[in-house]
Amino acid sequence: MNAYRILFVDDEPSILEALRRVLHRQRRTWDLVFTLDGQGALDELAKAPFDVIVCDLRMPGMDGASLLGEVKERHPNVIRIVLSGSADREAVRTLAVAHQFLGKPCEADTLRETIERACQVRGLLDSSALREVVGRLDRLPSVPHTYWELTRAIDRPDVSVAEIARIVETDPAMTVKVLQLANSAYFGAAQRKVSVSAAVAYLGLGLLKGLALTVHVFSALEGAPAAAFSLEELQREWLMTARLARSFVIPRERAEEAFTAGLVHDIGKVVLATAQPERYGEVVQEARASGRAQHVVEEERLGVTHAAVGAYLLGVWGLPLSIVEVVARHHTPGLAVASPSQEVLAAVHSADVLVHQLRDGVACGLEVDAAFLERAGLIGQLEGWRAAAEAELARGAEEARAA
Ligand SMILES: [Fe+2]
Ligand SMILES: [Fe+2]
Prior knowledge:
This protein is of the alpha/beta class and 403 residues long. Helix content is 61%, strand content 7%. The longest helix has 21 residues, at 382-402. Bound molecules: fe (ii) ion (FE2) (2 copies). One fe (ii) ion is lined by residues 265-266, 352.
C-alpha cells in the first residue's frame, strides 16, 4: 500500500517536534517530512510528490501565504492546509490559497482527522482523468469562508438571527442571492423582504449553508467563456432536488443533510464546465441529442463524471464524508457501501432522477435504481415521491414565469 506523504512547514522547531510526537502512531501509513521554512518546503516538493502540505502562516522570509501560492502554481494537486494561531484569523480570511484552516493549538484528533480526510479525498485523484480535469483549472475553487462561519455559528445554541445575518452580509454574492430567493415567488413570498435578517429568518439555516457552498462555485463559472447551460436554470433544478430530497428522507434528523446534499449534488458540472468549456459544451449537446445520461457521456468522452469531480471538490473543502459519498454515488447508489447515509443517498438519487425525468422526459437517460430502493426498503415510497416531484415541478415552472 502506498503511504501518504505529508509535508509540515513551521519556523518553530518546538511545534514541528510536537507534531511529530502527536502523529507518531501514523508513521506506518503516513510518510511525514518536516521543514523549517518555505524554501525548504519547495525543495522537498521538487524532489518527490506529496499529498498534503500543512503550513504555518507567519514565518520569516517566505510567509505561509506566499509559499502556498507557489505550491498552488507548481503542484496544484497537493492539498493545502493552514495551521495557524488565532491572531492570524483576519489574514486567513483573505487567503484564497488554502483548502482548509486549522487553528493553533490544534487537538491531535482534529489534526489526524483533517489530514486523513484530505488523504482520502486525494485518493479520488488517483483517477488520471480526474487529475487531468482538476489540473486544468487554474485553481480549484477554495473553501467558501462563509460556509464555515455559518457552520460554526449555527452549532452554537444561542446564536441569533442578527448574527447569522451579519455573517451573510460580509459576503456580497451571498447577500444578493439570499435577498433574491427570499423575495422569489418560488418561496411563496407575499411580502417583500428588504433586510438580510428578515430574509435569513425566512429561508432557514439549512438553505443558507447550501447556498454558501454553491454561490461561489457559480461565480467561478460566470467568467468561463462558453457556459454549456444556463446558471439560472441549473440553480432552480438544484433547489428543486434539494427540497424534494429533504421531504423524502425518512429519519427527520437527516433532513437538512439531504437538503445540503441535494443542493450540491451536481456541483461537479460547474467544475467541468469551468475546466474545459468547449469540450463540456459538446458533452452536454451529445447527451441531449442521443438521449443518454450526461454522466455516461462524460465518462466516455472525458473519462470522469461530474459526480466524481463534485465529490472531490466537496471533500477537499472538508464537507462531512457522508455528503461527499452521496454526491459521488448519486447516479450509482448501488455501488455505495451500506451506511447511515443510505437514506439520504436514496432521497437525493430519487429526487435527482425524478426532476430530470419529469422535466426532460425519458430523453434524460436516467432511471431510478429500483433494486437499490428495494434493498433499502424504500421502494414502496416511490409512487408518493413521484407525485411530490410533479407538484414541486409545477411550482418551479410558476416561479420561472414570475421571474
Ligand atoms: Fe448528476
Ligand atoms: Fe442532477
